[in-house]
Design brief:
Layout: E1 9-10, E2 23-24, H1 25-38, H2 48-62
Parallel strand pairs: 1-2
């Protein structure tokens, strides 16, 4: 089983120009396939605090305003 957890990726999902932060989509896809073709096994482990911090930074970079009613 292979699971790929992408970072923030610059895409046009939703609206063109909405998701402009992160790595360019083509660069990310090329890097993933190059690693898969190499046969190397890469494992990434993050602590809960590291995961929470990356998530916080991604939300901050997105400039999305969330309003809870």
């Amino acid at each position: 089983m292979i699971e790929v957890l992408p970072p923030a990726v610059n895409t046009d999902l939703g609206v063109v120009g909405l998701h402009t932060f992160g790595v360019p989509l083509n660069d990310f896809a090329d890097a993933v396939f190059n690693e898969l073709e190499s046969g190397k096994e890469n494992r990434l482990h993050a602590t809960r605090n590291e995961f929470d911090e990356v998530t916080r930074q991604a939300w901050k970079a997105s400039n999305v305003k969330v309003r809870i009613f």
